[in-house]
Design goal:
This protein has 257 residues and is mostly helical. The protein has nine helices and three strands, in the order αβααββαααααα. The structure holds zinc ion. The site of zinc ion (ZN) has 6 residues, from helix 6.
């Protein structure tokens, strides 16, 4: 079979998508060693686009490069999720502490606009994607409002590690029915109330209240993710081990609070 010649940029994008898809659909198992040469051979491309794609997936937290050991599909245990959320909570509380004294009208307005977006009903994949984006932006706005670039960087790295957990967690979701379920609606309303409380506390410059509301919000998200993760994990090892049910890729971020 003949393959059409690809430009270098195009080849990297396609290799990246092929590898990412393979990880998301468990064509590669968590913890599996990846051989760059073998992948390049199978895809019929040179090593360069494979290396670039591996780097990109590493940044996203889907692949781990272990020095002197090799390249592996990232694995995640319940303990990993637990500790990542604990650190995330600490970082967001620190961001709140730093942001509270320097909160401008412009940032407050940004928070209000995001809350407005988050109030919109979520009843399809596209609405969910927009909702998750606004959700992520709300937390990002808090981090930026801290005025601490180093803190923002650490936070960004931490979030990448949760990507794979979201993928596993999303496997337990049935895309067509979940939006109508009581659980989904209840969670949506609870999440909304939590976001409103966080913003209200920041505006009131009440650090104690901001910390408590962030903690409640982030720990609930942690519990929800662990519950979804456990539902698709192999009981013996505690690592994800069930085949994908083919849920839409856009559902993968649902467990981000
Ligand atoms: Zn949130």
């Amino acid at each position: 079979m003949k393959l059409r010649r690809l430009t270098r940029k195009r080849a990297t994008d396609e290799v990246y998508e092929a590898l990412r898809d393979a990880i998301l659909t468990r064509g590669f198992k968590p913890g599996e060693r990846l051989q760059v040469e073998e992948i390049a051979n199978k895809l019929g491309v040179s090593l360069t686009p494979v290396r670039h794609s591996v780097q990109r997936l590493c940044t996203e937290g889907l692949i781990e490069i272990r020095p002197r050991s090799g390249t592996f599909v990232a694995t995640l245990t319940v303990e990993d999720i637990q500790s990542t959320f604990e650190v995330r909570c600490a970082l967001e509380c620190l961001a709140a502490e730093l942001a509270i004294s320097r909160l401008t009208r412009a940032v407050e307005k940004e928070f209000d606009e995001l809350l407005e977006l988050l109030r919109r009903p979520v009843d399809n994949e596209e609405a969910l994607r927009k909702h998750e984006e606004a959700n992520s932006d709300l937390h990002q706005t808090l981090l930026q409002a801290s005025g601490n670039k180093r803190l923002e960087e650490v936070y960004a790295g931490l979030n990448a590690h949760l990507t794979i957990a979201r993928i596993h967690a999303s496997e337990s979701r049935k895309a067509e029915t979940a939006f109508q379920s009581k659980e989904w609606l209840a969670r949506f309303q609870q999440e909304q109330a939590e976001h409103e409380e966080i913003v209200a506390a920041l505006k009131a410059k009440d650090l104690q209240r901001a910390r408590e509301s962030l903690r409640k919000h982030i720990y609930r998200a942690k519990d929800a993710m662990i519950a979804s993760f456990a539902a698709v994990s192999a009981p013996a090892s505690g690592r994800a081990g069930k085949k994908s049910d083919g849920a839409a890729p856009s559902a993968r971020k649902r467990s981000h609070n």
